[in-house]
Amino acid sequence: MGKFPILFLLIACAALAAASFGALHNQLSYSVGPTYFTEFKFLQFDIPPDTPPRLGAAYVGAMASWWMGAVIGLPAFLYGLVSVPNARSYLAAGLGAIFVVILLATFGALAGLLGGLVADTTGLLDPYLTFPDGPTRQDLLRAGFMHDASYIAGALGLIAAFFPMRRARKLDLARAQEPAHAT
Question: Tens of pLDDT along 157-183?
């Protein structure tokens, strides 16, 4: 397979990985902040009231995040398309870039949950925040912080996604410089 079709495959994989991440992420965030979904996100995404809440949370996560995979991956994938000489290396580096971004988003979500728990228990940010009607303060802080932190970490992944591509380029160029072995 040539490198150009791999670009489209990587974009599709990044979107699928981001949608899967969002669906799984929302299972945890629903556990720590159910009214964030029932009183806010389900209304925002027009989830019918008879939808099982876990299914609704997964749907919201997938729909809210699939596009992030494509947007975050595209710059690194385009860089790899023009700079990584070998198609197989390009594919491996692209999959590695997706993994790096998902890993960062996971750590971001966990850091956001920790921050939300601290903000909830201490009330430290209460003077600076306006809490809307609907979700409870506790659920908004916990699930909301998780969501925001995972988006921020995912956006930082836009930079981190270049590292696997740069490494693949460096390895391919080094292999091309090696003398051919006589058989």
Answer: 999 999 999 999 999 999 988 876 655
Q: In terms of Cα–Cα distance, which of 68, 102, 89 is closest to 165? A: 89
DSSP state, 161? Answer: T
CA-to-CA distance for 156 and 113, rounded, in angstroms? Answer: 18
How far from 85 is each of 3, 16, 97, 162, CA to CA, in Å?
9, 26, 17, 15
The Cα 110–Cα 104 span in angstroms is 10
**Which of 74, 64, 9, 70 has its CA nearest to residue 36?**
64
pTM: 0.90
Q: For residue 182, what are its two tokens?
A: 């006589």
| Beta carbons of 180 and 73 less than 8 angstroms apart | no
User: Would the pLDDT of 54 be above 90?
Assistant: yes
pLDDT at 181: 63
